[in-house]
Design brief:
The protein is α/β, with parallel strands linked by helices. Helices cover 41% and strands 11% of the residues. The chain contains 15 helices and eight strands. It has helices at 3-7, 11-17, 26-33, 45-48, 50-63, 77-82, 89-107, 126-146, 159-171, 194-203, 217-220, 224-230, 279-291, 305-314, 342-345, and strands at 20-23, 67-69, 110-116, 150-156, 176-180, 208-212, 234-238, 296-299. Strand 5 (176-180), helix 10 and strand 6 (208-212) form a beta-alpha-beta unit. Helix 7 crosses helix 8 and helix 8 crosses helix 9. The site of zinc ion has 5 residues, from loops.
């Protein structure tokens, strides 16, 4: 319950007016900062350092995110079981939701719940489907109780699993953003093209459909126009900020051929640094996706605030962080400010 909520535009209203930018990628960022373990990838930082989670929410909003996404990605029953902490399941969800709600309330951003791939869903096993659905139901229930504006269902490999998640969100009476993860084969694990999967979600009531994670800007972009043409609802694109290629289209498939000290030789997930996109590449992606009619944009694993700011600026925004966007005119060597010393500027080409 909040009076602010009544005055703020909701997700659908904002999408009708223009873009919605959603910063994702909390797991990778906290792993990089030393508060979360690669491998299991469980957001324990929510319970151990809630102040840091709230701070990263604030940094993303400062940089231009319109959404504070509760950090409940992989805070589900299967992941909590895996690390022997299933008893903390409800606590971690409620805490993550409370942190996101607080930052959304203070900033006027949208407050989103988040559910994702369960890793137990098996298309051949009906019992696993019931388990997955129950996992969605409990997490969506906590999100609804926290008063989220909408729920994101993300990073699904099976369209059928995403549909179960969607059904639970709609059963709770909430708007739903449903995004699929596209692996090396550009179809879902149950064999649908991305546009067929997205059309299916729209038929089942999804408000926004699209792709997130796994693929970088270059290898996600080619699939967006087919989705855009196929559905009437808003389309989402939230790539990972890595330089994936036609030969290595996903961040799991990237190999760093110039480095022979990576354990196991696989850059994912701890040695992707060399493939990191710069801010200009994310700006370019935002412009290209926008031109295709994609208006729910963001960045997934590998995201940082400076990339969100760049995306926001590419879409014509000036978030608070734009106050500090690059201006080289006062740089000692490369600048052109009249008060700069010539003996430094003349040395610029020797730097
Ligand atoms: Zn991701």
């Amino acid at each position: 319950m909040s009076t602010t909520k009544g005055q703020r535009a909701g997700l659908l209203e904002r999408l009708e007016r223009g873009h919605v930018i959603c910063a994702e990628g909390y797991l990778f960022e906290f792993e990089r900062r030393g508060y979360l373990q690669a491998g299991a990838f469980v957001p324990e930082v929510v319970l151990e350092h809630p102040d840091l989670v709230a701070q990263l929410h604030r940094e993303f909003v400062h940089a231009g995110s319109d959404v504070v996404e509760a950090f409940t990605y992989y805070a589900h029953r299967e992941k909590m079981r895996l690390i022997g902490k299933e008893h903390l399941l409800e606590e971690i969800n409620r805490q993550a939701l409370a942190l996101a709600k607080e930052v959304a309330a203070e900033s006027g951003a949208l407050f989103a719940g988040d559910i994702c791939n369960t890793n137990v869903f098996d298309p051949e096993n009906e019992e696993s489907k019931r388990t997955a659905r129950a996992m969605f139901e409990e997490q969506v229930g906590w999100a609804a109780e926290a008063g989220v504006d909408y729920v994101i269902a993300e990073t699904f490999s099976h369209a059928e699993e995403a549909r179960l998640a969607l059904e639970e969100i709609k059963a709770a009476g909430l708007p739903a953003v449903v995004t699929m993860a596209l692996h090396r084969e550009p179809i879902t694990r149950d064999g649908l093209t991305p546009e067929d999967a997205c059309a299916l979600f729209e038929q089942h009531g999804a408000d926004v459909v699209g792709l997130n994670c796994i693929r970088g800007p270059r290898t996600m972009l080619p699939f967006l126009s087919a989705i855009r043409e196929r559905v009437s609802c808003a389309v989402a694109a939230l790539p990972v900020p890595y330089r994936t290629t036609e030969d290595e289209p996903t961040f799991q498939s990237l190999h760093d051929h110039e480095c022979d000290v990576i354990p196991g030789g696989m850059a994912f997930p701890t040695a992707l640094d060399r493939f990191q996109c710069n801010r200009y590449e994310l700006a370019e992606f935002a412009r290209e996706a926008d031109a295709l009619g994609v208006n729910y944009l963001g960045i997934c694993c590998g995201n940082s605030p400076h990339l969100v700011r760049s995306m926001a600026e590419a879409l014509g925004r000036t978030p608070p962080a734009s106050r500090y966007s690059a201006d080289m005119s006062k740089h000692a060597y490369f600048g052109d400010d009249a008060s700069l010393k010539d003996f430094n500027r003349e040395f610029a080409e020797k730097l």
